[in-house]
Amino acid sequence: MSVTIYHNPRCSKSRQTLAILEDKNVDHEVVEYLNHPPSRTELRRILGMLDLKAHDIVRRKDAKDAGLDVAAMSEPELLDAMVNIPIIIERPIVVAGDKAVIGRPPENVLSII
């Protein structure tokens, strides 16, 4: 099974989730999504696996700091903002096969590996 973690090394929850993958010897790919943001298509695919909408995975404070009014944005507008300002995406997100979880708390990753 292919496992990908959308990771921000400055985030403690992201580091803790990555540590769980490493401790469990899970073969994984680390995507530092601030440097390599997921595409709009990839975000839609991940949201489908999470069974969530873009509004559900927005870091509200970071979005506000970026000058975004999330409540006034449509789903397509928010997806575009996530691609262009990836810091607003909740982290970490771990994708394993056709399943995904948000690593908050980090132990959530155990449900898909």
SSE succession:
EHEHHHEE
The helix fraction, in percent, is: 25-40%
For the sheet with most strands, the description reads: 4 strands, mixed
- In whole angstroms, how far apart are the ends? 9 Å
The name of the CATH topology is: Glutaredoxin
Instruction: List segments where confidence is low: pLDDT < 50 over at least 5 consecutive residues.
Output: none
Placed side by side, the strands forming the largest sheet appear as 2-1-3-4
- Please give the count of helices: 4
Fourth CATH level, the homologous superfamily? Glutaredoxin
What oligomeric state do the depicted chains represent? Answer: single chain
Radius of gyration based on Cα positions = 13 Å
Mean pLDDT: 97
- CATH first level: which class? Alpha Beta
> How does CATH name the architecture?
3-Layer(aba) Sandwich
Structural class: alpha+beta
Characterise the protein shown here:
The N and C termini lie close together (9 Å). The protein has helices spanning 12-23, 40-50, 60-65, 75-84, and strands spanning 3-7, 28-32, 93-96, 99-102. The relative contact order is 0.25. α1 (12-23) links the parallel β1 and β2. By secondary structure, it is of the alpha+beta class. The chain has a four-stranded mixed β-sheet, sandwiched between helices. It has one domain (3-111): 3-Layer(aba) Sandwich (Glutaredoxin), CATH 3.40.30.10.
